[in-house]
Fold this protein.
Amino acid sequence: MFFVRWGARIPANYNLGMRRSTFSTLLCAFGLLIPALAAQSLPTPGAPLTPQRPALTPLSQPTLTPGQIELMKLEVQFADDVAKGGGKAFASWFADDAVTLNNGKPATLGQRAIAANAQWDPKDYQLTWYPEGAQMGPSGDTGFTWGHYDSTSKDPHGQPVTLGGRYITFWKKVNGAWKVALDASANDAPPGDCCKVGLP
């Protein structure tokens, strides 16, 4: 991030974060998660190619708890909603007192301010992401998810611009419903700059 999934990636011309003991239980839980992930990775004929979500299966991640699965499903729903509804859908997931953090910009405080900045149309700007991990808090009413995002827009000459990076979403329950408390993102480092160590 560090800003919200959208802020770091939106171009300047837009206004604009009880472990079950049986294997069969995990299979049932993933039976709910995998179709949502798989459906998003099927390309539409004639549509531009988008990054493929990794296959999440009980064999690839055998230690996921029911809480982690719940949060990852929630994140997939969040991403799907935003892919269809753009900025308005993005802002609707946030708690009233939420915070978004963005590369080189001040924090955006509160759902109203987030909504005022999230004005993009999905026809002009596409933001996609997928969760790669999650942790549920001990009380079961807070947690976080993290993963990878990609955004696609056009520059002033109509050429496609694609950015990618990492994100983290902090979740909390508000009156029994999950809401985003904090969303932060950071663009990927340029190729070759990932592990440079500064010299004194």
Remarks:
- The chain has three helices and six strands.
- The CA atoms of residues 127 and 147 lie 13 Å apart.
